[in-house]
Amino acid sequence: MMNNTVHKAIRGTWVLTIASLFSELLSAVYRIPLQNIVGDRGYFIYQQVYPIYGIFSVLALTGLPVVLSKTFAQQADPESKKKLLKWVFLILLGLAIIATAVIWMLSKSMARFMGDINLYPEIRTVSLAFLLIPFEASLRGLFQSDLVMEPSAISQVIEQLVRIVLIIAAALMFSRQSIDLYQMGALANSGAFVGGLFAVVILFFTYLLRQAPITKKQSQPVIKLETGLGLEIVLIIFLQELRFFINL
Fold first, then answer.
1. What angle do helix axes 78-105 and 120-127 make, rounded to 10 degrees?
2. Engineering a disulfide at 155: which of 83, 91, 129, 199 sits with its beta carbon 3.0 to 4.6 angstroms away?
């Protein structure tokens, strides 16, 4: 039993590592044709709001799922996990709505700070991706707590592929003079939200397929939370964000 768990953990780690490397490769490759098509100014306009996408990416892909998977794994039974999933989702949803609203309302001020007021539609577009964090982070954390890494890996790669397709499509539309540079930037950055939607669909249907038949509840499920969980979440997210901005 122990050997099987270790084997499953090692296999899951490899699956996530390969998916992450492939996603990083895709992220690096698309920048070359993008810059060639839209030029330095177009690439600069697209890249200006990339750090905001980076915050979303860290929260949805790595930071939160890692901490949540550990918390889910500490639960004694599936019913406790379901109860925890519900509370985690509702808390994250509330925070995501607040974050999206704040970024949306401050988008013009942020654009002025970046030196170009015309960037605010891009900022608003990227802010919508934060609404997907509750779905992505909670479900990825749940799957990873059971050492089931395939849904996280597949959704991550599909999310990145859809995002890149939209970026290149926006660049090609600009090259044909269908849209201007700022519209190109907004459409390209909408890939974060659209790609995230594809990821959510994959994760949600996987969750439904993995649901066990409903049985009669024996007792009220109890959620176990370790002390210092909040600090651990902050530290992991901070370190992941720092890593992202160093590699930017």
1. 170
2. 199
Least confident of 27-31, 172-176, 208-212, 222-226: 222-226
Contact between 164 and 30 (Cβ < 8 Å): yes
**Burial class for 146, CB neighbours closer than 10 Å (0-12, 13-18, 19+):** middle
Coil, strand or helix: which one is 223?
Answer: coil
Alpha-carbon span 197 to 194, nearest angstrom: 5
- pTM, full prediction: 0.83
Quick one: pLDDT at residue 243? 55
Q: Which two tokens stand for residue 131?
A: 């609404």
Give the residue, 227 or 129, on which the prediction is more confident: 129
Q: What is the mean pLDDT of residues 87-114?
A: 91
pLDDT of residue 42: 83
Residue 242, C-beta contacts closer than 8 angstroms, at least 6 positions apart: none
List, in order, residues 6 or more apart from 74 with CB less than 8 Å away: 224, 226
Q: Which of 99-103, 152-156, 212-216 has the lowest mean pLDDT?
A: 212-216
Neighbouring residues of 241: CB distance < 8 A, sequence distance ≥ 6 = 54, 55, 58, 63
Alpha carbon distance 151, 91 (integer Å): 23
Amino acid, single-letter form, for residue 7 = H
Closest by CA to 99, choosing from 60, 152, 69, is 60
